[in-house]
Amino acid sequence: MASVDEDNDARPSDDRDLVDGQLPMTARQEHFSLAFTRMVAYVAGCAVKTHDTDYEGVDITITSSADYKRFWGAEFDLQLKCTTQQQYLADTHMAWPMKTKPYRKLIRPRRYTPAYLGVLLLPEDADKWLSVDEDRLITESRMYWQAASAFDEDDGTQLTKTVHLPRKNLFDGSQLLAIMRTIGDDEGGLR
């Protein structure tokens, strides 16, 4: 049986998150970040693998079918986050607080597949997330990324860890292909 708010609101407690009777904002953000990432990946000619759970701290895996110097079919795991909190954005980076458990999963040193973090920053006004007309599809959102290998080791003393995603790491097609080339060529760098 659904719970009822103490103020005699007859809506089930799960409906309190519903802004307009539709999906809660957190679910909208989650799905929008997946859709945004898919659009960028597909435009770059990459594919997306989904995971049934995110137990390993991975939301999706992005793959390439290109033949690089060392590997064919480079891929990387991507943990996605989404926010409307503009205060995380500084002049040179986005500062993102992560809980310790997902942070540890992301930075595991013996990962077979390289891991990355992507944080999508949306406007606070959901009406500005996406605009569509006959000529274009426009979003005022942008995603910043960083390789997990660039993050510090966890010393186990903190409940949260703040990571910095450089503003120059804007997730678009050319940067996605550069990530794939770094992984596929295996010539060092962040992977």
UniProtKB/TrEMBL annotation:
Region of interest called Disordered, as start-end residue ranges on this chain = 1-22
Q: Locations of Basic and acidic residues compositional bias? A: 9-19
Record-linked InterPro entries: DUF4365
DUF4365 domain sequence ranges: 30-182
Which domain of life does the UniProt lineage start with? Bacteria
Protein known as = DUF4365 domain-containing protein
Naturally occurring in which organism (per UniProt): Streptomyces yanii
The organism's taxonomy opens as: Bacteria, Bacillati, Actinomycetota, Actinomycetes, Kitasatosporales
